[in-house]
Amino acid sequence: YRANDVLYHVVNIDEVYVNVDVPETYIKQIREGMQVSVTFNALGEQHFAGTVETVLPSGTTTNRTFTARVLVKNPDQAIKPGMFASIQIALGE
Hints:
By secondary structure, the protein is mainly beta. The model has no long low-confidence stretch (mean pLDDT 91). The chain contains no helices and five strands. Strand 2 and strand 3 form a beta hairpin. It is globular, with a radius of gyration of 16 Å.
């Protein structure tokens, strides 16, 4: 090993972020603090509560979406980085 080599990373997964691509047609309805329900394909029907922490202010032009970051508590550490998630958000009109 040499100086400044990274030997390993320590990752705390007691809380995880899920990045959600939100179509621009819905973006004005998404607000910080909104409660959402999150499921992960690898974990079956188990639902996790999440909170929209932030909505990035600029979108992508290729698919016209904006990214919302959802914070999900993970006390049992069942959620692992890189898992595919589905989000349900109740939108009011």
